[in-house]
Write a structure and sequence with these properties.
It is a single chain. The chain is an all-beta fold. The protein contains no helices and 11 strands. The strands form 2 sheets. Strands 2, 4, 5, 6, 9, 10 and 11 form a 7-stranded mixed sheet that branches. The protein has a 4-stranded antiparallel sheet with strand order 1-3-8-7, with no helix packed on it. Strand 5 and strand 6 (58-60) form a beta hairpin.
Length: 126
């Protein structure tokens, strides 16, 4: 059984930083791309960042480029999202996701992921 468990969310002031972590169990973590998505009430879940199986390729949504950094530690089955210079519009539930296809270098759409974490709330106050 594949499980993804996120941690690190919370309340932070605008301009502050948070680091999200996601630990994966139940599959060969290092073979698959990983990603982060976020969702606010009444809106569709949106792509935030993705990383290839090796960590050598990353991709970001324009809204977070230059502020967020995705990384992974394959020895610890963990993917991180470092979020700096946070803005109130970053407030959302953040989801970690594991890629469906090991042949893909990067996955940026929900369809390309088949396992999801439970989500962690990030709230940025102004």
């Amino acid at each position: 059984q594949v499980q993804l468990v996120e941690s690190g969310g919370g309340l932070v002031q605008a301009g502050g930083s948070l680091r999200l972590s996601c630990v994966v169990s139940g599959r060969t973590f290092s073979r698959y791309p990983m990603g982060w998505f976020r969702q606010t009430p009444g809106k569709e879940r949106e792509f935030v960042a993705a990383i290839s199986w090796s960590g050598g390729t990353t991709y970001y949504a324009d809204s977070v480029k230059g502020r967020f950094t995705i990384s992974r530690d394959n020895a610890k089955n963990t993917v991180h999202l470092q979020m700096n210079s946070l803005k109130p519009e970053d407030t959302a539930v953040y989801y970690c996701a594991a890629g469906r296809n090991p042949s893909l270098t990067i996955a940026t759409t929900e369809f390309e992921y088949n396992y999801w974490g439970q989500g962690t709330q990030v709230t940025v106050s102004s």
